[in-house]
Design goal:
heterodimer, A: about 450 residues, alpha/beta, D-Maltodextrin-Binding Protein, domain 2, five-stranded mixed beta sheet, 18 helices, 12 strands, B: about 280 residues, MetI-like fold, 2 domains
């Protein structure tokens, strides 16, 4: 009897499992039909739900959620579902969603992803076609350089981000460096040398391989005035210039201008977390204005300066780019409502006050003015960005930002840093590996 | 006397070595715990385990999260996802393994090879096709992509592990059950499963920890923040250009490790036995 009971219970378990499966599938169809219902009803009463996907930290999440709440109060027919996360896995998720046609209506993307996303399809709506978005408040030149893809305005910049030197004012005071210094390559190398001579534990520059790559690029571009890599996939520099850049970098390593990579290796890719930097034993970090607030949280007396520019530079090599872009999904059923929200997001004074600089220095003059008037913007950051915008070099083209080329370069720079290669050999190595990779990439294009 | 001393010395050295090595292995864990009590700006400045000033608001603020949903919600979500997944995996894998281990049917070898070959398939290869499939089923933004496949024994590793374990059990026990009048289901329930308890427990623990910590799949399938699991919640605020409250993240990491630790230690006896015996042939 007992056996029989167990057998019956097993059968019941299997049955429950089956009903669960069936239940799910019927659930799904009912879900679908309810979706259809809301869709059809939305067209009548104009009740729409928008999905807005972004990444960021706590500050950005809170500010954006507040802005969304305010917008929903003002527009009761619009419901906005916030889908926020950290940067981990964001791109992977986005690519999956775009290929599965399940992406949100409003999507925050990074400028550097555009080539990769464009290679997989045409995903973003042309915002210049949306009449409810007023783009005249933006710097048109800036839009032209970064926000257009195949003559379509695919997104609007959420903020302005520029290359900059972040420096520790206490460090500068300690080693008698004038913090008004306008940096060029010569005084940078000289100061770096002197600092290390005064104190064997101190290094002027907090450089990892990626930062060194920024520097090499800027050095080369200032000499040539070309793109790093041209649009036709040819190199924008010759061996001589690159050798000079590597010699300069090599001297910085040998003179103790840069902390040896053997010590800073654990912080490759995140130099802002290097304990020596946090403890004031490194003076300067070559990075982006968007990193100012992060570093400011740890270093009280943080200053911000222009990257070194040679007096005879053909191009300043200063990169000014959007911190991110806000795009509308091409397949969005409520593109018009999404456009209205985006217009409010960028152009409404109240929105500007709530969103502050959580996505970098605001891209519109009006929003910047509101923040300055209300004391919501760090004056140093504002000034540095404004100066950088005035002096900006020509924007980087897509191929110059290629991640694989960056990987090759940082590999070569590391070999140089560990003295495995002389500057000349490093230049040879980089050029031959670039040429190989570029021809591969070119073939993929065809 | 002399010998005794020698032994003592060698024992002391062994212990010193073991303790030092244990500390080395446990250090990251201790660091996480200590970091959760440090003020945020201290975390990367020193490797010291003792905070310069103990803060506890990291736990409170971390639990509150971004304001919209607390971590309590994420924990509840994770349990809603993990518990059915584990139960269904255990039931389905055991049944399938029993089939492979004890019955002969057409194409058994081919099917077994197919099952093993799915074990070799890298996860990233099937990520997008699986996503598209589940999308067609309308399962996105729910826990169905985790729970329903678990019903169908889609974890080849566990099936394989159970098959190996079952092969190690003497057939004579089951034959005697047949003589006593049991059918194959009764044998499974009354004879085989009780003998498999160690393997079943280790399967449950593995699946619990893996699902609990699963980041990539939850990331892909869950969109709404209200349905986020702990592993998503932990990374929700990590961004290079924002000030990250690492001490809050560490505090939540500590809390999110607790269920795994509790489960592991409460079932440790069976767990170790399970691993130790699955490799043995009878």
């Amino acid at each position: 009897m007992n056996n029989f009971k167990k057998f019956v219970s097993l059968v019941l378990v299997v049955l429950i499992g089956m009903t669960l499966l069936v239940g799910c599938s019927s659930d799904e169809s009912s879900q679908e039909s309810s979706n259809n219902n809301t869709d059809s009803s939305s067209n009548e009463s104009k009740n729409v739900t928008l999905r807005f996907m972004w990444w960021g930290g706590d500050d950005r999440h809170k500010a954006t959620l507040d802005a969304i709440d305010l917008y929903m109060q003002k527009n009761p027919n619009v419901k906005i579902d916030a889908e926020y996360s950290g940067i981990d896995g964001y791109l992977q998720k986005l690519v999956t969603q775009l290929s599965g046609n399940t992406a949100a209506d409003i999507i925050q993307i990074d400028v550097t992803w555009i080539p990769e996303l464009a290679a997989q399809g045409d995903f973003f709506a042309d915002l210049s076609q949306q009449k409810s978005i007023d783009t005249t408040t933006f710097d048109q030149n800036f839009l032209k350089q970064y926000s257009y893809l195949n003559d379509k305005l695919i997104g609007l910049p959420t903020g302005i981000n520029a290359s900059a030197l972040l420096y520790n004012k206490d460090f500068f005071a300690k080693y008698g460096i004038d913090d008004k210094t306008v940096w060029n390559w010569d005084n940078l190398a000289e100061t770096a040398k002197q600092v290390h001579q005064k104190d064997k534990n101190a290094y002027l520059l907090n450089f990892d391989a990626t930062v060194s790559y920024y520097m090499v690029k800027a050095y080369v571009i200032q000499r040539t005035g070309n793109y790093w890599v041209n649009d036709d996939y040819s190199l924008g520099f010759d061996k001589q210039v690159l050798t000079d850049a590597f010699t300069y970098l090599d001297q910085l390593f040998k003179n103790g201008g840069i902390q040896p990579f053997s010590e800073s290796a654990p912080f490759q890719g995140k130099p802002e977390q290097n304990p020596k930097w946090l403890n004031g034993e490194l003076g300067m970090l070559w990075n982006w204005t968007s990193m100012y607030n992060v570093n400011k949280a740890n270093i009280k007396n943080l200053g911000i300066a222009m990257i070194p520019v040679a007096p005879d530079a053909k191009d300043t090599g200063i990169i000014v780019r959007p911190s991110q872009l806000l795009t509308i999904n091409k397949n969005s059923e409520n593109a018009e409502e999404a456009a209205k929200f985006i217009n409010w997001f960028f152009n409404d004074p109240e929105a500007a006050k709530i969103l502050k600089d959580v996505r970098g220095l605001p891209p519109t003059e009006t929003a910047r003015k509101i923040l300055v008037d209300n004391g919501l913007l760090d004056p140093a950051l504002n000034e540095a960005t404004t100066n950088a915008t005035k002096m900006m070099g020509k924007p980087e083209n897509g191929i110059s930002q290629n991640q694989e080329l960056e990987k090759i370069s940082t590999d070569v720079i590391q070999e140089l840093a560990y003295q495995k290669l002389t500057p000349e050999k490093a230049a040879d190595e980089l050029i031959s590996r670039f040429e190989q990779k570029l021809s591969e990439l070119k073939d993929q294009q065809k | 006397m002399n010998d005794l001393k020698k032994i003592n010395v060698s024992i002391i050295f062994t212990y010193i070595f073991l303790i030092a090595f244990a500390l080395l292995m446990v250090y990251p864990l201790l660091w996480v715990v200590s970091a959760s009590f440090k003020p945020n700006e201290d975390i990367f400045k020193s490797l010291n385990l003792i905070p310069s000033r103990v803060v506890t608001d990291s736990y409170i603020n971390g639990w509150k999260g971004t304001g919209q949903y607390t971590f309590g919600r994420f924990f509840l979500n994770t349990f809603i996802m993990v518990v059915p997944t584990v139960i269904f995996t255990v039931v389905s894998s055991t049944v399938v393994a029993y089939g492979f281990a004890r019955f002969n049917f057409p194409f058994k070898k081919v099917l077994f090879a197919l099952m093993i070959s799915t074990l070799m398939l890298p996860d990233s290869v099937i990520l997008i096709p699986r996503y598209i499939l589940f999308n067609r089923f309308g399962w996105l933004d729910s826990y169905k992509p985790f729970i329903i496949p678990a019903l169908l024994a889609t974890a080849p590793f566990f099936v394989f592990m159970m098959v190996q374990f079952l092969r190690g059990l003497p057939k004579e026990l089951e034959e005697s059950a047949v003589i006593d009048g049991c059918n194959s289901f009764q044998i499974l329930l009354r004879i085989t499963i009780p003998l498999c308890i160690p393997a079943i427990i280790s399967m449950a623990i593995f699946q619990f920890i893996w699902t609990w910590n699963d980041f990539l799949n939850t990331l892909i399938y869950i969109n709404s923040v209200s349905k986020y699991t702990v592993s998503l919640g932990l990374r929700m605020s990590i961004d290079a250009t924002s000030v990250v409250n690492w001490n809050q993240i560490m505090a939540m990491t500590v809390i999110s490790m607790l269920p795994c630790i509790v489960i592991f230690f409460s079932a440790q006896k069976y767990f170790v036995e399970g691993i130790a015996t699955t490799g043995l042939k009878g």
